[in-house]
Amino acid sequence: MAKLDFFYEFASTYSYLSAMRIDDLALDYDVDVSWRPFLLGPIFKAQGWDTSPFNVYPDKGRYMVRDLERLCDEQGLPKFKLPKTFPVHSILPSRVALCLKGEMRAAFTRETYNAEFAHGADISDTKVIEKVLKGLGEDAAKIFEKVNTQPIKDALRAETEAAQKLKIFGAPAFVTDDGELFWGNDRLEAALEWAVR
Hints:
Elements: E1 2-8, H1 13-19, H2 22-29, E2 31-37, H3 41-46, H4 53-56, H5 58-75, H6 91-99, H7 102-117, H8 126-135, H9 140-147, H10 150-165, E3 173-176, E4 181-183, H11 188-195
Parallel strand pairs: 1-2
Antiparallel strand pairs: 1-3, 3-4
């Protein structure tokens, strides 16, 4: 079975769109998807940015919001809502995702994005993440015990370093078994097609 690495950032609006559609598309293409949360902060810092390019370039930011409104409507998602703080600090949900495996990581990711971009919730808030975990039937207290342990911290650092080594510069990014990189929600189908070639 062909494989595809899905690198996503919880603060990334376009990663949200991909997270909401990648599983159905992967089934159609018969591709196994590996969900890999990472942090864009260190990558942006290396490019000389201390925030999202959507904040660095206000016109680009305004366009992004309108584009997301159109695309959410097209995908049948709730009306797009940008949280008050953007980009949000995504360390907490990223570490929580790495405490989860397989379908539960994917489900947690989708529900966290839903809280963030459909409801404008602050996903750096423990209470928001606790609510997401409980809604999925997970023991939030048990997961929060793991979140600040060295192995989970190291796992997130390793995912971010892996993204840097692959020359990933934004999210979402998709990497095929042969190392081909595709960037952006609009390249998801192309990535899946390449994966099964």
